[in-house]
Design brief:
heterodimer, A: Rossmann fold, four-stranded antiparallel beta sheet, 36% helix, 22% strand, globular, B: 286 residues, Rossmann fold, six-stranded mixed beta sheet, 12 helices, 10 strands, 41% helix
Chain lengths: 276, 286
Amino acid sequence: MDRNLLVATGIEVTYGKRAGLFGTGQPVAPVLHGVDIRIARGQTIGIVGESGSGKTTLGRALLRLVDVSAGNITFDGKDITHIPENEMRPQRRRMQMIFQDPMASLNPRHTIRRILTGPLLLHGIAGDTAEALARVKAVLDRVSLPAACLDRYPHELSGGQRQRIGIARAVLMEPDFVLADEIVSGLDVSTQAQALKLLKELSRELGLAMAFISHDLSVIRAICDHVYVLRLGRIVEQGPCEQVFAAPSAAYTRALLDAIPLPEYDPGWLERKTEA
Amino acid sequence: MTDMLLNVTGLSAVSDREGGLPVLRDVSLSLKKGEVRGLVGESGAGKSTIAKAILSILPRTVRVTGGWINFKNRDLLAMKPQELRSIMGSEIALIPQDPQTALNPGRRIGAQLADGLRLKRGMSAKAAEARALQLLADVQIRDPDRVMASFPHQLSGGMRQRVLIAAAFAVDPELVVADEPTTALDVTVQKEILRLIRRMQEAHGTGVLFVTHDLGIVAQICDSVTLLYAGKVIEEGPVRSVLENPQHAYTRALIAAGPRYDRPDAGLEPVPEEILHALRQEIGIR
């Protein structure tokens, strides 16, 4: 079996490129310029970058939620770069996503029961409602949410609880790969630690591969094995976390690290400047 | 004590929207002239409520039930609206969280800065414009002429926040309340903005109350810190001693809960339930 689960080579994404009225398309600058990503089975990679780096676009391209204008993507040995939607659909169950804002990604008019059991029945993972419910209860327990949540609506839960519903919804589909895009950025420190710990444990238990997108290198350090540093649509550095964090080779990575304020006394920090 | 700027004593408040739930519980804190104090805590800890109480912009649903807010030995809570108006935006200024919504989208930056100077400092239009240009240069905006003529949407988030820092310091206030002013910014821009706030504060000798949820920011920009939980002051003191020698178990757990790029094992342990339980008992929350 191939160790690599998801391999993206030379990914280029261009937004807004359309044929004009007389076939004169406006040339638009690409958001991603030939990005290579390789995710092994069970591996957690981090994709870090500032706003406008293209990290969200990259994540969406990996799941084929946006079309690439160049490059190719293989998932579990199958080239999925341009396959039609009906062929893509069975793959979608195996590639799940956890969203940044759980409030916006959970239907406000559905109960948690319906939100979690619906996809199980739709994809035929559970044969009937009773089986779906049994699976949902087991996963709720795993993410430390009481079964009483089932009859609640998303707005009745706290931000941390909603984020755990998002995690539960993703793992219920028994995916091989999960994309998590800035999922802890709005959470309090302690709630964030809870979510990170849960994800790290789940990825181990279920052998999940994960791509964890964040603007925060400290969060990446806590959860990832490997990190890609993205700047203006290009990978400026990538490598195992131990290596990149101990001895970053790109000036940009160093600048990002030096800009993170640590909770310790360091009188020179504020005036210290690192040029990217 | 002549160098005392702000003294909050025994401030208590309840939320009428939540059935009289206490949102501030006997909060005391002080700020000297030229001091930067961090007001830190998780969401719902009451840090923004304190900031709003000082600025006299508490929502109607929050009712102060006790205490004083002495600013230069005068109780802000006992002042008439007219007196407050002469102090707010003049002796006390705000650097808001979201530079996008704090600026009028339909007016040029120069006009917005000049408005404040004419209103609060009684300057002529011409003098105000000249001063506004100088202020933009002070906050290290390279081409102040262009920014003066720009609308907010034409500027980056970091640039807009510089404009708001310029606006806050324009009136040469004695107290600046900074309400999470860098949450919307990238880390590299955040560092520049923190550096700028500290430099402006030092140059003007301003006292700053810096509201944040980030202990890292507190460590790097504040002289002292007040840590809150559920509207109660849990720990208070000089930044270095609080971070290096925290007295309360909650403070220690909160510091440990944050991820750190220099420690692979950090950021994975939430504040333990036992500590939260003991803390709630200590505060008197059932």
